[in-house]
Hints:
Number of helices: 8
Shape: globular
Amino acid sequence: MGELFTFFGLYSEDHAFIFLTHMLLAAGIVIILARMATANLRLVPVGTQNVLEAYLNGVLAMGTDVMGKTEARRYLPLVATIGLFVGVANVIGIIPGFEAPSAFLDFTLALALVVFTYYNFEGIRRNGLITYFKHFMGPVWWLAWLMFPIEIVSHISRVISLSFRLFGNVKGDDMFLMVILMLAPWLLPMIPFALLTFMAFLQAFIFMMLTYVYLGGAVLLSDDH
């Protein structure tokens, strides 16, 4: 979005520079939040520790509904980190002068490839190569020739679904906010700001939920997930 003003754009309007600086800003905020939460741990949490513990409990509860508490706890660090990163990246774009790194396909595609690679790796590691890919053939052996390529295409399409869903929604939100700011830059944007903040966290929630679903489907073959 070359027509969108950003503070980093004052230094360079290069697409890669804008994306990289905003991505590093989001990563820096996540690291600072994590350091603040763990700098002075208390038995009765307060401040940032309290907020992030509530967040982790919520993510764990989400994963428990999908794959059970034991498995959800195993993958909690990955899912919670992705959710926090995506959430911060989305919220940055709501602040005038900044652009959400998740509004760049480079960002969402990279995250989708990380999730795709990791859940397939875990599926193979936990179940074995033969058992994992045998699951792609479906429950009926004489339909294996049809089910296997369908499953392969289905898994590859998850990369497209994860990346383009997040990219499309955040990009659309950015353009919507830009139009609102051009038409009524003072009072009217207050309502869209609240709505876009909700949507930013919703997209992070959806990404986390799908990550848990894909992990559950890969590692819990015996439970027919």
